[in-house]
């Protein structure tokens, strides 16, 4: 994949004797700030620091902390030239400070990233760039075509957070000959009506990350209602697949950490901040029980391989 080829090039460049200039470039430490001590954040941190270490960054130049432990004068942040935030709370904390470090944000949905910067009313002086947690709609539509080739009508429930992405999904669906059937939630009591509208004569329900629609209180009812309607759900999280969605495409914390490392290394080498980007690498998961109940046979590994190959085509 593109990110791995880029990292291999960087390793070769360092090992060729050019030394990468890391001794001077990394005179100030890199600080990783996680929203909490959850396992996912630790996995991303480990992948990030390991990749940077393999490319010549000294371990002592990399530190990490949790947002709950950040105080004024925190040694991890005080002199950091580069800060990597993991999760929404970590980014919210950092943009609220007068940091002069360049910020790379990961494990954060696009809508949360944009809203956090808008709420803060400012950006770090040196700039901020993100690897979004969510997948591009084109990738999700391609997976739908691979897994459910007979599908033509795609249901979606928009909430207050996600409605701004409606045109992006509409474009991706139209380019693949798919029709969207949408329901909208503006108030909490409207969810069931929006869901029924989205399931009306549709072949599949696409779950779009939006806490006003999909949360711990609603997800079980949404999945059960979809299951009873015999409408498979393409989700954005493996947890939802375990709970009853048919399949998902998602990026693991380790994959996100590796991509963040590539962005950091490119910035260190050429002093150009990469634009915000969707995940390069991804994983497909399926629920075999749900598939069988719907008369389907899906192979997660085969779907993942086909989807990766599809994205490599010119």
Detailed description of the structure:
By secondary structure, the protein is an alpha/beta fold. It is built from 14 helices and eleven strands. It is globular and about 55 Å long. The protein has two domains: 144 residues, Rossmann fold; 143 residues, Response regulator (Rossmann fold), CATH 3.40.50. Helix 1 packs across helix 12. It has a six-stranded mixed β-sheet, sandwiched between helices. It has a five-stranded parallel β-sheet with strand order 2-1-3-4-5, with helices on both faces. The longest helix is centred in the last third of the chain and has 18 residues. The two termini are 14 Å apart. About 6% of the residues have low confidence.
Name some characteristics of this structure.
314 residues; alpha/beta; Rossmann fold; six-stranded mixed sheet; five-stranded parallel sheet; 14 helices; 45% helix; globular
């Amino acid at each position: 994949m593109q990110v791995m080829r880029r990292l291999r090039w960087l390793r070769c460049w360092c090992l060729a004797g050019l030394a990468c200039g890391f001794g001077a470039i990394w005179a100030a430490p890199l600080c990783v700030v996680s929203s909490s001590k959850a396992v996912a954040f630790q996995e991303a941190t480990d992948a990030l620091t390991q990749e940077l270490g393999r490319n010549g960054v000294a371990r002592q130049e990399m530190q990490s902390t949790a947002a709950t432990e950040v105080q004024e004068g925190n040694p991890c942040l005080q002199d950091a030239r580069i800060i990597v935030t993991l999760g929404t709370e970590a980014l919210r904390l950092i943009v609220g400070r007068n940091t002069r470090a360049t910020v790379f944000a990961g494990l954060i949905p696009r809508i949360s990233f944009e809203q956090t910067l808008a709420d803060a009313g400012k950006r770090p002086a040196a700039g901020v760039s993100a690897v979004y947690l969510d997948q591009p709609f084109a990738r999700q539509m391609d997976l739908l075509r691979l897994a459910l080739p007979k599908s033509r009508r795609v249901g979606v429930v928009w909430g207050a957070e996600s409605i701004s992405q409606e045109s992006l999904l509409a474009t991706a669906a139209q380019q693949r000959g798919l029709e969207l059937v949408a329901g909208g939630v503006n108030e909490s009591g409207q969810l069931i009506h929006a869901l029924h509208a989205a399931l009306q004569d549709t072949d599949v329900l696409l779950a779009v990350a939006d806490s006003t629609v999909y949360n711990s209180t609603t997800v079980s009812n949404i999945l059960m209602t979809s299951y009873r309607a015999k409408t498979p759900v393409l989700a954005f999280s493996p947890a939802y697949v375990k709970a009853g969605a048919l399949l998902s495409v998602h990026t693991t914390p380790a994959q996100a950490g590796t991509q963040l490392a590539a962005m950091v290394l490119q910035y260190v080498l050429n002093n150009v901040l990469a634009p915000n980007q969707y995940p390069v690498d991804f994983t497909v998961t399926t629920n075999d029980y749900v598939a069988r109940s719907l008369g389907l046979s899906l192979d997660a590994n085969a779907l993942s391989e086909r989807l990766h190959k599809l994205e490599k085509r010119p």
